[in-house]
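Researcher: Quick test of sequence recovery. Tokens follow.
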């Protein structure tokens, strides 16, 4: 696997927005899965009209284009020895205009490179040419009950580049990720009631919990023990779920008080040794369980285990290893699903040791500590 975004292969992200719904869905796919059939069909057509010869070695290159670029009405043919013989897989995607992960793709350029003739055939095509692939994904959403027959949806394609991205060989409903606020955004800061630490029977302090002005985290002992049991269970992949509780304002503007009373383990989340991915099915399961089990509480964050340690330097420049860190995949998850500044994340290692992470000045940082209360 590539180790940096610069060396990782670009891939595509499809975002689907059903009309009238607050939620969005996304799926990440490799370029070969999306474009192989289209590229092979074009190569057959070029062979039939003798633009290229049968049996020639052909490579395909996909280039995303963004506004204000305009599609060419006609294909363009060039002869370029160096480009035609560049070493690459048979179909790849190249970010000729640089990485623009938040910009929706307007159209694509497909280059067919015929090596023996040193020919470069360039053809612009609309995202509408991907309708067959989109129908497969919409069918999966319909089967999962996320959209209904005849419902209007908007679709957008984006180019991404992430060394930790993972893809399925044949995308299905289980690969769809629901993109929304972890809970409805109607809960505003003005609606938080006041509460301070004196309301709890605190029995333990881990680390040095943040001082006034920060976010104090209080965690029920039973919830902590339950999540520690999961972490110590000997699983070979990462596991996790969501944190359930409430959010309060501390008196005199002393910041948030995050109360974690329980958790929901997500059996539908897909984990590897290195990261945990929440799928569409995982979010559907979570919403059902919240309504049934915790109607008076809300999701205040998420938790997951880490199995693999990373090396860091301490303040004295000494190397130490720990599983209690926030990876690139973790940062992505928190920024996509837990955008409000009161959401927190808990990471546990195989020994059951725990560390919280929270928002601080638009960054996710490790919390200095937290309290445990007797429930």
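Model:
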């Amino acid at each position: 696997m590539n180790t940096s975004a610069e060396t990782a292969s670009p891939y595509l992200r499809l975002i689907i927005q059903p009309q009238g719904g607050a939620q969005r869905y996304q799926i990440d796919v490799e370029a070969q899965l999306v474009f192989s059939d289209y590229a092979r069909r074009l190569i057959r057509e070029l062979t039939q009209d003798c633009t290229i010869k049968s049996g020639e070695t052909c490579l395909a290159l996909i280039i995303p284009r963004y506004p204000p670029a305009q599609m060419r009405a006609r294909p363009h043919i060039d002869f370029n020895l160096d480009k035609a013989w560049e070493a690459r897989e048979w179909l790849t995607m190249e970010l000729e205009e640089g990485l623009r992960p938040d910009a929706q793709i307007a159209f694509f350029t497909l280059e067919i490179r015929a090596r023996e003739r040193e020919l470069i055939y360039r053809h612009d095509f609309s995202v509408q040419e991907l309708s067959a692939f989109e129908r497969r994904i919409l069918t999966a959403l319909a089967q999962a009950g996320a959209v209904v027959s005849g419902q209007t949806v908007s679709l957008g394609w984006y180019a991404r580049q992430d060394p930790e991205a993972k893809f399925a060989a044949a995308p299905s409903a289980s690969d769809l990720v629901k993109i929304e606020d972890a809970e409805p955004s109607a809960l505003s800061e003005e609606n938080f009631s006041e509460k301070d630490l004196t309301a709890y029977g605190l029995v333990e302090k881990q680390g040095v919990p943040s001082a006034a002005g920060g976010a104090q985290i209080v965690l029920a002992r039973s919830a902590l023990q339950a999540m520690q049991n999961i972490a110590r269970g000997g699983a070979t992949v990462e596991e996790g779920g969501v944190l359930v509780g409430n959010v309060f304002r501390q008196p005199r503007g002393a910041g948030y008080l995050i109360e974690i009373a329980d958790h929901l383990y997500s059996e539908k989340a897909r984990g590897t040794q290195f990261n945990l991915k929440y799928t569409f099915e995982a979010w559907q399961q979570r919403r059902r369980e919240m309504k049934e089990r915790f109607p008076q509480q809300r999701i205040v964050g998420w938790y997951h285990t880490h199995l693999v340690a990373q090396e860091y330097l301490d303040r004295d420049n000494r190397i130490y290893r720990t599983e209690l860190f926030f990876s690139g995949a973790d940062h992505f998850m928190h920024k996509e699903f837990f955008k409000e500044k009161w959401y927190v994340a808990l990471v546990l290692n195989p020994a059951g040791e725990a560390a919280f992470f929270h928002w601080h000045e638009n960054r996710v940082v490790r919390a200095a500590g937290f309290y445990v209360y007797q429930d």
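Helices lie at 31-48, 81-84, 131-143, 221-231, 280-293, 328-337.
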